[in-house]
Amino acid sequence: MVADRANLPQLEHRPFLTDSGLETTLIFKEGIDLPSFAAFVLLETSDGRRRLRSYFERHAQIAREADCGFIAEAPTWRANPDWGRALGYDGPALAAINTSAITLLADLRDRDGRGRYDYVISGCVGPRGDGYDASREISAEEAEQYHAEQIAAFALTEADLVSALTLTNSAEAIGITRAAQKAGMPVVISFTLETDGRLPSGEQLGEAIIKVDAETGCGAAYYMINCAHPTHFEDALEAGGRWVGRLRGVRANASRKSHAELDAAAELDDGDPHQLASEYATLVARFPELTILGGCCGTDERHIDQIARVCITSASPRLESTLPDLD
């Protein structure tokens, strides 16, 4: 374990950008075949690593120009046991690929010249099953055991935290949080939501956050929403209570379509970057604790650039003055 892992600078009430929809960018914009939506396979070739470096460098530059922090999410969303085995990776091979992903990002951070305070590296964890389907039930105990292997690999690297993205239910979130706690890793839980603002499991967002906090001693550093459009969850936030203060970030889809519609789509719906940025600005104005902004399916650096321009560059003085003290 890295003994000097620092506190998370993104909790200091200042803006951070993340990257965007890595997999959809690679597939639809760059024409790369990603088996099982697994971007980690690109780490196996020099050309694949070059493409990943270019992707993260483009996003880091947007954050630099916006004078804000940057969170680089490792391309390891699928690098867990079930998905890995389906692609021919056993346990040691997965540990090596997860380590390689963080090494690539650590090298990029060194080249960038910014340190941990401005350039944060996250080890990305994805769900055991499909990110759109919660029909395969998993207990918190099963999830803890299942995800412990990948999280343990990240704990031996320069990763600053673990981020679990596109989670469909609270049980898996509880298990991941417990596994990260045992590994000594800060952990972020990011739920995906359907068009009605609920998790694919049917749970209300607030109920899920409250449950995870109750079962883990508020073990997550913070929560996020990803892989949903702002119009899908704005009502859920409006109706929320104190749990809303545990939400610190959004990585929205470019499209307003449902998960089922996106799954069936043959072409990418990349929406309108200007419109999406405007919708982000509305969210940030209502919920100023949302200081971590990025993208998910269908978004690319155009969307992140517009979000930075609208929500950070033109709003940073107001943002700093209106943020509540949530710690």
Largest sheet: 8 strands, parallel, barrel
- Name of the CATH homologous superfamily: Homocysteine-binding-like domain
Q: Percentage of helical residues?
A: 40-55%
The average pLDDT value, as a whole number, equals 92
CATH class identity = Alpha Beta
SSE order:
EHHEHHEHEHEHEHEHHEHH
Overall geometry: globular
Sequence stretches where pLDDT stays below 50 over 5 or more residues:
317-327
Strand content: 5-15%
Description:
This protein has 327 residues and is α/β, with parallel strands linked by helices. It has one domain (12-316): TIM Barrel, CATH 3.20.20.330. The protein has helices at residues 22-29, 46-65, 81-86, 91-112, 140-155, 170-183, 205-216, 230-238, 259-264, 273-286, 301-313, 316-322, and strands at residues 16-18, 69-73, 119-125, 161-167, 187-191, 222-226, 247-252, 292-295. It has an eight-stranded parallel barrel, surrounded by five helices. Strand 3 (119-125), helix 5 and strand 4 (161-167) form a beta-alpha-beta unit. The longest helix is centred in the first third of the chain and has 22 residues, at 91-112. The radius of gyration is 18 Å and the shape is globular. Residues 317-327 have low confidence and may be disordered.
